[in-house]
Amino acid sequence: MPRATGDTPWWAAHRHLHRRPLLLARNRIKSAIRAYFEAERFVEIETAALQVSPSNEIHLHAFATELREADGHTARAFLHTSPEFACKKLLAAGEERVFTFAPVYRNGERTRLHTPEFTMLEWYRAGGTFEENLFDDTIAIFRTAVTETGIAEIAWDGVNCDPHAEPERLTTTEALARYADLDLDRLLNDEGGGDRDRFAADLEARGLRTAPDDTWSDLFSRVMTERVEPNLGRGRPTLLHRYPKSEAALARIDDDDPRFAYRFELYAAGVELANGYDELTDAAEQSCRFEADMDEKQRRYGERYPIDPDFLAAVEQMPNAVGCALGFDRLVMLATGARRVEDVVWTPVAPFEMFAGDETC
After folding, report:
1. Cα–Cα distance for residue pair 52/49, rounded to 1 Å
2. What predicted TM-score, i.e. pTM, was given to this entire model?
3. Which of 106, 192, 278, 315 is the most exposed place for a label (fewest CB within 10 A)?
């Protein structure tokens, strides 16, 4: 099968020799993180990648396949985009603290920060607290990685971050006011969404493009991506929290203000590393959110994924819990000073051309 001219494969000896120190650092970081979780009395688990539903996120695209039984019956199946559903089923089963280094699969994603197959570190604490246990776990894991490599300063695309500095805690309301001159409270209604036309007008007045079919969530995502996120994690890590309800499909609603939900993200040098929730345990509410998201996915992309009834049943039985998903490859990339995530993956996914090439002999 032909290879693009000038593209050296990852397994070429001279290229592997350059990558090998980064890969060995990856192993050390993984071992150190395992030691952290073991000290915190977590159980390491392994989740099946083949699932009834890959997830019910609007903008994530899964790899679909066919499950075939011995008698010839077939059914549609998916490679998961996150081990979250399986982890929460284990919480419902009685596990109290679990973590996993899970291979996950997302179609249509390949950049310096993305690859179609990558490793997600996820962990869940039954009965844990959001702004104590979960924030503390996330920062401890982040510092474990950079301590293991000894890196003094993280740098990404000209943005620097001291990984050992005290993290900044910033709400989305504060971030939008600081970096986009927007009043999020004014833009939100009681349902955690808002006046889409007012939001669009505010963005256009600030030089941001909009489209006629943009939803309120699209506009929120655009201003976050273009104005807010590049400024997060500058100088020190940022814990961005208190997201609008509409932007936190699997999170519990804020007790003090139902327009917001208990969700946070960790940023370092402008790179998003982790996404955490105080987990939703209302199965009826979860089902409504999934249906609405799949309706939007159908409208936007012409496809929808099934909703896993077992997952909703597990949510009904699940204890109060907090959980976080962290891009392990990104963490290793920043902790080693690598240029892209594929530099710290032992066997990267082959280039697209290798799949699409001429198969004739």
Report:
1. 10
2. 0.94
3. 192
